Amino acid sequence: MWCVLTEDDDLDVCRDEDVSFFSVSSLEGGSVEEEVVSENFLCLVRPTQLLNCSWWFPVLHQDAQLSVHISVCDHSRTLQSVAVRSDERVGWMSLSLEAPATSSVVIRFNVTVGNRWTVYSRSYDMEDIEVLAPPPNISASVADGDLLVAWGLPHSRGPTNPSCFEYQLDVGDQEAPRHVRNQLTYREAGVDPGHAYRVRIRTRVMAACQQDPHWSNWSQPIGIDPQCWNNKVRESTSS
């Protein structure tokens, strides 16, 4: 069961200097012991500027009450917040973002059983939880028997250096996706002239530039009809 908390129930976690990457605090002598690690919580920012946070507690005390607070912070200032109360150990929340790229997210769980309580907090830099959109300006062509694919640099809240991005290309030939790093083009020689290729791409920030990166969705496929080759360039584009 879920219910929305009132403003009086909210916690101003953005002012809490003790919130680090992952922290646990409790009432001395009255804590609620749960098997929780930071991997039990996940927040991601989608290209639609939707913040999705999910969590699960492997075992939640039978009589436990769980309140969840998500705050978007600009240093110590709260920009947006949402909170719910639940008695379920698995759940998720979403928030449409209006915050700048430099903001951060804090998700806090208060587990209460009677007069005992424990608080679990997890903080994220916004740029570290961004899921990118597929690359823009994708083009695919065939010339002299070679497949040529090009695309633009992805838009990112964080890194802008081309060396921070990696890509997977699926050309519709039942083979494993091609992996590309540090470049915005791909060439494959000696393609099958009888195969109708359908090119699509996805991207992510490399682990050296972002913590726990996630792949974007695949781009819309670009079809290349072999009947149109005729030893000439056949090009399709996708924005």
Radius of gyration: 23 Å
Rough outline: elongated
Tell me how many strands there are: 17
Derived structural class: mainly beta
First-last Cα distance: 43 Å
* Secondary structure tally, helices: 0
List unreliable stretches of 5+ residues: 1-10, 230-236
Outline:
This protein has 239 residues and is mostly beta strands. 0% of the residues lie in helices and 46% in strands.
Description:
A hairpin with a 2-residue loop joins strand 10 (138-143) and strand 11 (146-150). It is built from no helices and 17 strands. The relative contact order is 0.16. The strands form 4 sheets. The chain has a 6-stranded antiparallel beta sheet with strand order 1-6-5-8-9-2, with no helix packed on it. Strands 14-11-10-17 form a 4-stranded antiparallel beta sheet, with no helix packed on it. Helices cover 0% and strands 46% of the residues. By secondary structure, the chain is mainly beta. Residues 1-10 and 230-236 have low confidence and may be disordered.
